[in-house]
Here is the input.
Amino acid sequence: DQQVKQNSPSLSVQEGRISILNCDYTNSMFDYFLWYKKYPAEGPTFLISISSIKDKNEDGRFTVFLNKSAKHLSLHIVPSQPGDSAVYFCAALIAAGNKLTFGGGTRVLVKP
Amino acid sequence: NAGVMQNPRHLVRRRGQEARLRCSPMKGHSHVYWYRQLPEEGLKFMVYLQKENIIDESGMPKERFSAEFPKEGPSILRIQQVVRGDSAAYFCASSRTGSLAKNIQYFGAGTRLSVL
Here is the structure.
């Protein structure tokens, strides 16, 4: 039972363009969402988060959008840089608990 | 200003042996979480601990796996009588509090367990 899904396993984008990563969830109890970035042989690094009471959060080149009615969130990276090449994980959290539920990840390749 | 420290980074065990994975949380963090990542999959929650207490172990396999976070020292994830299916990357994370708004979990680099 996969409660958080990232349906695109990979994404290739040209340097300077926008990267859009998508994430869908099924559990309406989730009320906090996070994006993590992961390089090979390293642990996930926190990027940006959003509370379920908001629909947008922006931090520099990263913006996360949340559509609660569609149970969908997306991460926009603009402009994309070669150093952004990594695996990106969407994760969700229920207020009453502390465990992160992760999606399967999207591998992003930014071409120079 | 050390982050979450995990050791060893790589661990090789033969079937039937025990594996001990260690995690020291970030300074000032009292909440520790263990996750497992199988090849080509996302991370799966295993257990959440505070000092001397297991808060949520709903993701732990019922047998052979145990975790502790003693008053002094690192958190330990222990796997007894390892089998090939235990081969995975095990990540530890820590957070300052358990409250939702501040609960950003910071991850260590992981321990890669290989069972021969």
Summary: The mean pLDDT of chain B is 92. Chain B touches chain A through 29 residues (CB under 8 Å). Chain B is about 0% helix and 50% strand.
